[in-house]
């Protein structure tokens, strides 16, 4: 059980949430989008949200600033969250305007808002669950896409809700977070996306 829940924590690491939402958008959108627009968004977003953070992680680990990819302490979380905010801003101002996709712009606006809120809470000595923040963000984005495009993706939403529960269970089982930290993380992610709905739904 320990190994299974540990694998869940790796598979649904918050690092993969931005690219996960981007790929999911292109899988379900009924809009005609050229391969150029898809690759123009997916590839840069993958590099900025997965490859570059991993490089920064290795650098920070070598410097002794952080010890684990799960960032167990408040002190370890600050630098990765600063880096994440900068990278999300780069996506909003450099990547998406070149291949503009309305829905993705607000998805990343919500992610930036949620990350900023988690960073503010760190200064208040509160460690938000980034796993649940990411899951809440992607779940709400999926719901938004279903409403926006009037498509039935109930099965995908149901399965992802199950995965969200598994991630929460894994973080509790591994004693990475308290129930309150998990709940606050989920609500921050969920509500940050919800607040953007009035601009694109």
Radius of gyration from CA coordinates: 16 Å
Low-pLDDT stretches: none
Q: Overall pLDDT, averaged? A: 91
Distance between the termini: 41 Å
Tell me which oligomeric state these chains represent: single chain
Largest sheet: none
Q: What's the number of helices?
A: 8
Number of strands: 0
Coarse structural class = mainly alpha
Give the CA-based shape. Answer: globular
Strand content: under 5%
- Helix fraction bin: over 70%
Note the run of SSEs as H and E.
Answer: HHHHHHHH
Walkthrough of the structure:
- The longest helix is centred in the first third of the chain and has 28 residues, at 35-62.
- This protein has helices at 2-11, 17-28, 35-62, 74-98, 102-123, 130-149, 154-173, 179-200.
- The N and C termini lie far apart (41 Å).
- The chain is an all-alpha fold.
- It has 8 helices and no strands.
- The protein is 79% helix and 0% strand.
Task: Write a brief caption for the model.
By secondary structure, the protein is mostly helical. It has helices at 2-11, 17-28, 35-62, 74-98, 102-123, 130-149, 154-173, 179-200.
Comma- or semicolon-separated keywords:
mainly alpha, 201 residues
List the helices and strands and how they pair.
Elements: H1 2-11, H2 17-28, H3 35-62, H4 74-98, H5 102-123, H6 130-149, H7 154-173, H8 179-200
Helix pairs in contact: 1-7, 2-3, 2-5, 2-6, 3-4, 4-5, 5-6, 5-8, 6-7, 6-8
């Amino acid at each position: 059980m320990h190994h299974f829940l540990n694998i869940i924590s790796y598979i649904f690491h918050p690092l993969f949430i931005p690219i996960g939402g981007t790929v999911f958008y292109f899988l379900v959108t009924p809009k005609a989008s050229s391969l150029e627009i898809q690759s123009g968004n997916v590839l840069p977003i993958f590099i900025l949200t997965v490859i570059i953070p991993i490089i920064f992680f290795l650098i920070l680990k070598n410097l002794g600033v952080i010890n684990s990819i799960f960032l167990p302490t408040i002190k370890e979380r600050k630098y990765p969250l600063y880096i994440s905010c900068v990278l999300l801003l780069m996506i909003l101002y450099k990547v998406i305007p070149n291949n503009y996709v309305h829905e993705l712009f607000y998805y990343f606006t919500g992610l930036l808002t949620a990350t900023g809120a988690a960073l503010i809470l760190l200064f208040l000595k509160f460690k938000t669950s980034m796993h649940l923040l990411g899951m809440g963000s992607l779940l709400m984005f999926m719901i938004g896409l279903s409403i926006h495009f009037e498509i039935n993706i109930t099965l995908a939403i149901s399965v992802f809700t199950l995965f969200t529960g598994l991630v929460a269970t894994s973080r509790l089982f591994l004693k990475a977070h308290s129930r309150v930290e998990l709940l606050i993380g989920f609500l921050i992610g969920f509500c940050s996306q919800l607040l953007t709905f009035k601009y694109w739904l």
